[in-house]
Amino acid sequence: MAENAAEVLVGGAVLAAAVGFALYAGQVAGLGAGIQGGADTYSASFRSVEGVSVGTDVRLGGVKVGTVTDLTLNAETFRADATFTVDDALALPEDTAVIVASEGLLGGNFLELLPGGSPFDLEPGSEIEDTQSSVSLLNLLLQYVAGGGDES
After folding, report:
1. Residue 6 shares a structural domain with residue 55
2. Which terminal residue of the chain has fewer beta carbons within 10 Å of its beta carbon, N or C?
């Protein structure tokens, strides 16, 4: 009987640890309550979205305010069209820019919103025109090694 009680206690502790780990992993991955209220959807067209995928963070001032929900290739313009959500509590100015930013040399990429100074706000569902694509670190290194920069 004492053996069964010990097994039940150990099993309960393992189960509690597994549930705690799953909750922590969900918060780190952004599956929790990242956006408290609703979310507005916006779109943008990029020359390259290298390093961005569905589920990638959309940040404003370093704070996660949304998520990339769809990436498609526009067959007419040969550009990558991204659809993403932004917390509906944020009113984005109509001259807002969106760039593909990097977390660092070895970090992943994310979409960063750079709000402008326009007194007029973007309508939910509209396209953000001012975009900047990701910069390929490998291409920059190859240009440097090949001496592709201007010599002064």
Report:
1. no
2. C
